[in-house]
Design brief:
9 strands; 23% helix; globular
Length: 197
């Protein structure tokens, strides 16, 4: 049995996407296009990623209920809100956004979903992620790095997982031990994102 877009019934990510539709995380003039499977502009040169890409990333991240999650490049807040739905009220989701206008708007969008265990904050200049809030069980990065950021690996708990695009390729990074380089990396094909800054 399958549900929307061929997703298997019982698919937690598909259920989250039904519960937290993209429409509420787009500018008013883009909302009629919410169901289109393509990136849509949200202002400040940023985009809301295409739903199929978001779904693939979330399935690969596989955040368990009760997890502590960092969402880097939260933009409109959609991925932050989806993650909040997946981890449930016993979890914590911290979205971080570099653009002040988007951080305010995205934070308001997340707040409107009634999931107070998820927040969006403005990135501190020169600081990648939110080190003070770590370690995180899961880290989702929705911007493209040129190399695997050691600063984010350091914020990942031992046994934790990060999904991040690096040089046009989607990576899943599992931290196996306390050493910063004790990670297992899997590759999942080509993707395009705005640059990680």
């Amino acid at each position: 049995m399958t549900g929307p877009a061929g997703a298997p019934r019982g698919d937690r990510v598909a259920e989250a996407m039904r519960a937290v539709p993209r429409t509420g995380f787009l500018r008013e003039h883009e909302r009629r296009r919410a169901a289109e499977d393509q990136p849509l502009p949200i202002g400040r040169g940023q985009t809301s990623s295409q739903p199929s890409t978001v779904a693939r990333m979330l399935r690969e991240l596989d955040p368990p209920r009760g997890a502590r999650v960092l969402d880097v490049g939260s933009g409109s807040g959609w991925t932050t809100a989806l993650l909040a739905h997946l981890v449930g009220e016993d979890g914590v989701v911290v979205g971080v956004e570099l653009e002040p206008e988007l951080a305010v708007w995205g934070g308001a969008n997340v707040e409107a979903t009634g999931q107070p265990w998820a927040t969006v904050e403005l990135a501190r200049p020169g600081v990648l992620g939110v080190p003070d809030g770590g370690p995180y069980d899961r880290i989702l990065v929705s911007a493209e790095a040129q190399e695997l950021p050691a600063a984010l690996v350091a914020q990942l708990a031992v046994g934790g997982r990060m999904v991040i695009p690096v040089r046009g390729e989607m990576l899943t990074v599992d931290r196996r031990g306390p050493a910063p380089d004790d990670v297992a990396v899997r590759r999942h094909g080509a993707y395009r994102f705005v640059p990680l800054r």
